[in-house]
Amino acid sequence: MTLIGEILISVLLLAAGFFGLVGSFGLIKLDQPMTRLHAPTKATTLGVGSVLIASMLYFLFFTDGITFHELMITLFLFLTAPVVAHFIAKAHLHRNWKPEELPQPEGDSTWGVYATDESETPDTPVKPQE
User: Fold this and answer.
1) Mean pLDDT (whole number) for 19-48
2) Which of 22, 30, 35 is nearest to 92 (CA)?
3) How far is 66 from 58, CA to CA, in rounded Å?
4) Which of 47, 90, 105, 116 could form a disulfide with 16 if both were Cys (CB 3.0 to 4.6 A apart)?
5) What 3-state DSSP class applies to 124?
6) Are the CB atoms for 113 and 126 separated by under 8 Å?
7) pTM of the model
8) What was the pLDDT predicted at 9?
9) From CA 62, how far away is CA 59, in angstroms rounded?
C-alpha cells in the first residue's frame, strides 16, 4: 500500500510542478492583460490543488490519521480563484474600454445609456462619470 501511495503522491507533485511551470510560462509569454490573467489563474490553481491533494494522501498513507485542512484549503482555492479572476477581468473591462467598444446585443435599440442633450444625436453614448 505504501508503494502505491508513494507513486500517487509523486504523480500529483509532478503534475503540480507541470501546471505551475505552464502558468508561469503563460504569464511571461502572453502579451495582453486579459490573456495573462487566464494562464496563472487556471494552471496554478490546478498546481496548488495537486500539492494539497498530495499532502492529504501523504498524511493518509504515512501517518496515523486523516487531515481535512488540505481539503478545506483546496475547496477554498477552487471556489475563490475563479471569482477573483472574474472580478479582476470586470475591473479591467470597466476601466479600459470606451462605451462604444463594449459589445452591443443585436437588434436591441434600447441598450446602454444614450445622450439626452439636443446637440448630440440620440444614438451617441454618454461617457460614464468617473
Assistant:
1) 83
2) 35
3) 9
4) 47
5) coil
6) yes
7) 0.63
8) 94
9) 5
Side chain identity, residue 53:
I
Residue 18 or 62, more confident: 18
pLDDT at 51: 92
Give me the DSSP letters along 63-117.
SSS---HHHHHHHHHHHHHHHHHHHHHHHHHHHH--GGGS---TT-TT-S-B---
Report the candidate in 110, 3, 73, 87 with the shortest Cα–Cα distance to residue 41.
87
Comparing 60 with 98, the larger pLDDT belongs to: 60
Cα distance between residue 61 and residue 48, in whole Å: 20
Angle of helix 33-62 relative to helix 69-96, nearest 10 degrees, comes to 180
| Cβ-based neighbour number of residue 94 at 10 Å | 10
- The answer on pLDDT for 14 being more than 90 is yes
Entry field: residues in the chain: 130
